Amino acid sequence: MDKQLIQSLLEQVKAGHTTVEEALVRFRHLPFEDMDFAKVDHHRQLRNGIMEVVYGESKQPDEVIAIARHIYDKNKKVLITRVSEDIYKALSIEGSTYHTASRIIEAGAADIKNGSVLVVCAGTSDIPVAEEAAITAAFFGSATKTIYDIGVAGLHRLFKHIHFFDEARVIVVVAGMEGALPSVIGGLTDKPLIAVPTSVGYGASLHGLTALFAMLNSCVPGIAVMNINNGFGAGCLAHKINMIGLS
Q1: What is the pTM of this model?
Q2: HSE value, Cβ hemisphere, 13 Å, CA-based, for 156
């Protein structure tokens, strides 16, 4: 339950359109709802601006579906990451969308998009993580733009799009292999930059550790680095930075 829903509910009580008892039923599961196997945090958006999102990997399908339905019933929106299309079909929320590349289900995304989040990735193999970042930021209300496959193996591709760096309020850069792209872009822009290493690469990439270490050791100051393949975390941080001064 977010600030707008609570404010609307209180205004309905004040106007006499909703009884106090009905409002109490709506508030009953704040700050969380105990489902035995899960404690659903309906209060999270009020505390930190990001509602609870369902991480689907490693959960049983029926657990993902139960948690997601509880969140959607209370908030009329839900975001679920790292899930199969089978879960999407079983969940069957009207108006929901399944994003195949990122394996995200979303329903009830913000209608109004503000600011400008730019998400770029080095190679086509990095797109699933980049999409996770872009869809997450957009779901919460950030206007997003994506540019894919502009890695350092063909640096001339990057310069064609350089004007978009100036238009963005925050940039997410996703890269695997040697993880060099965030350093290149970081040296070309004064915008906040969030680097995301991916596990894309051959043996010595060490499942993303090489890219992670490269980003952590960048000589460009002021680059924030997320965990390996954590497009969701990058999308959340990008949204929070983007909304500074706008909300």
Answers
A1: 0.84
A2: 0
